[in-house]
């Protein structure tokens, strides 16, 4: 998307100007299905940015509607709308009119995804959801708590079954969401900090197990091993390197069948290549 279109998504005013922005976007006329399809084809087939702008502008009111449903997190409404607008831009860029659905149905997932990321980054200093299942638990639990107030054990089990997590994860998330964050260090404008009476956790928490020399030695040893591993990997042929990295070192681990299809060999042959490569690596590392 062009800089001009990006400015559309990043032009949500803060403070008192927000209501004026909302009134402005609500005055932008909605598109008919025929007009939307015509603009989407121009963008998709010809790269017409003026069509993209019209599609974005006509759906800004929908972003405001979605963003309002996240007001319970205590985050600035303008920021939520801004993030949602970025999701709308991404949706418009990827929208294929030949699929036969309206843009609003396609865009809602992109808008919510951007807002979800923003909420998780900013709602707490300590991240409360790092996996896909935990993120689903986080947002669904917030919704359920508003309705139920607190959970019985049966309700905990029901939530766990519905969201595919363990009851202990539900209880832990509920406890973390109910707690309040405390600053590890007092800010410089705090009264106690100015008076030299700092009672923040940073002043009285101590890790008796901490050994700075040992930690530095451990870091050096790990770095040394990593350097040796990289050197040993480079000594392998290109295919063996790819197999080891895909099977052991990547974020998304490949299966034997995935690599078999990639190299047009049997899964058993991939397993043999993997075993040979691992033997060479162990020999080099020893």
TrEMBL record:
<keyword id="KW-0804">Transcription</keyword>
<keyword id="KW-0346">Stress response</keyword>
<keyword id="KW-0963">Cytoplasm</keyword>
<protein>
    <recommendedName>
        <fullName>RNA polymerase sigma factor RpoH</fullName>
    </recommendedName>
</protein>
<dbReference type="GO" id="GO:0003677">
    <property type="term" value="F:DNA binding"/>
</dbReference>
<dbReference type="InterPro" id="IPR007630">
    <property type="entry name" value="RNA_pol_sigma70_r4"/>
</dbReference>
<dbReference type="InterPro" id="IPR012759">
    <property type="entry name" value="RNA_pol_sigma_RpoH_proteobac"/>
</dbReference>
<dbReference type="GO" id="GO:0005737">
    <property type="term" value="C:cytoplasm"/>
</dbReference>
<keyword id="KW-0805">Transcription regulation</keyword>
<dbReference type="GO" id="GO:0016987">
    <property type="term" value="F:sigma factor activity"/>
</dbReference>
<dbReference type="InterPro" id="IPR000943">
    <property type="entry name" value="RNA_pol_sigma70"/>
</dbReference>
<comment type="similarity">
    <text>Belongs to the sigma-70 factor family. RpoH subfamily.</text>
</comment>
<dbReference type="Pfam" id="PF00140">
    <property type="entry name" value="Sigma70_r1_2"/>
</dbReference>
<dbReference type="GO" id="GO:0006352">
    <property type="term" value="P:DNA-templated transcription initiation"/>
</dbReference>
<dbReference type="InterPro" id="IPR014284">
    <property type="entry name" value="RNA_pol_sigma-70_dom"/>
</dbReference>
<feature type="domain" description="RNA polymerase sigma-70">
    <location>
        <begin position="255"/>
        <end position="281"/>
    </location>
</feature>
<dbReference type="GO" id="GO:0009408">
    <property type="term" value="P:response to heat"/>
</dbReference>
<comment type="subunit">
    <text>Interacts with the RNA polymerase core enzyme.</text>
</comment>
<feature type="region of interest" description="Sigma-70 factor domain-2">
    <location>
        <begin position="55"/>
        <end position="124"/>
    </location>
</feature>
<dbReference type="InterPro" id="IPR013324">
    <property type="entry name" value="RNA_pol_sigma_r3/r4-like"/>
</dbReference>
<dbReference type="InterPro" id="IPR013325">
    <property type="entry name" value="RNA_pol_sigma_r2"/>
</dbReference>
<dbReference type="InterPro" id="IPR009042">
    <property type="entry name" value="RNA_pol_sigma70_r1_2"/>
</dbReference>
<feature type="domain" description="RNA polymerase sigma-70">
    <location>
        <begin position="79"/>
        <end position="92"/>
    </location>
</feature>
<feature type="short sequence motif" description="Interaction with polymerase core subunit RpoC">
    <location>
        <begin position="79"/>
        <end position="82"/>
    </location>
</feature>
<dbReference type="Pfam" id="PF04545">
    <property type="entry name" value="Sigma70_r4"/>
</dbReference>
<dbReference type="InterPro" id="IPR050813">
    <property type="entry name" value="Sigma-70_Factor"/>
</dbReference>
<keyword id="KW-0238">DNA-binding</keyword>
<comment type="function">
    <text>Sigma factors are initiation factors that promote the attachment of RNA polymerase to specific initiation sites and are then released. This sigma factor is involved in regulation of expression of heat shock genes.</text>
</comment>
<dbReference type="InterPro" id="IPR007627">
    <property type="entry name" value="RNA_pol_sigma70_r2"/>
</dbReference>
<dbReference type="Pfam" id="PF04542">
    <property type="entry name" value="Sigma70_r2"/>
</dbReference>
<feature type="DNA-binding region" description="H-T-H motif">
    <location>
        <begin position="256"/>
        <end position="275"/>
    </location>
</feature>
<keyword id="KW-0731">Sigma factor</keyword>
């Amino acid at each position: 998307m062009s800089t001009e279109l990006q400015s559309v998504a990043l032009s949500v005013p803060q403070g008192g100007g927000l209501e004026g922005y909302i009134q402005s976007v609500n005055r932008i006329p909605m598109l008919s299905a025929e007009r939307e399809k015509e603009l989407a084809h121009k963008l998709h087939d010809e790269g017409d940015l003026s069509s993209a702008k019209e599609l974005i502008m006509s759906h800004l009111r929908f972003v405001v509607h979605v963003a309002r449903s996240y007001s319970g997190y205590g985050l600035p409404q303008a920021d939520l709308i801004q993030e949602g607008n970025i999701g709308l831009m991404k949706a418009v860029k990827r929208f294929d009119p030949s699929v036969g659905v309206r843009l609003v149905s396609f865009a809602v997932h992109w808008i919510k995804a951007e807002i979800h990321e923003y909420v998780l980054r900013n709602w707490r200093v300590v991240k409360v959801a790092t996996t896909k299942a935990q993120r689903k638990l986080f947002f669904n639990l917030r919704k359920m708590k508003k309705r139920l107030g607190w959970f019985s054990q049966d309700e905990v089990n029901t939530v766990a079954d519905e969201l595919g997590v363990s009851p202990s994860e539900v209880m832990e998330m509920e406890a973390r969401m109910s707690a309040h964050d405390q600053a590890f260090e007092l800010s410089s404008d705090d009264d106690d900090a100015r008076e030299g009476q700092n009672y923040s956790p940073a002043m009285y928490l101590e890790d008796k197990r901490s050994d700075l020399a040992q930690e530095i030695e451990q870091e050096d040893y790990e770095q040394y091993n990593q350097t040796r591993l990289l050197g040993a990997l480079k000594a392998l042929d290109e295919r063996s390197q790819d197999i080891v990295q895909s099977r052991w070192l990547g974020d998304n681990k490949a299966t034997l069948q995935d690599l078999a299809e990639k190299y047009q060999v049997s899964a058993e042959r991939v397993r043999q290549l993997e075993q040979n490569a691992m033997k060479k690596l162990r020999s080099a590392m020893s």
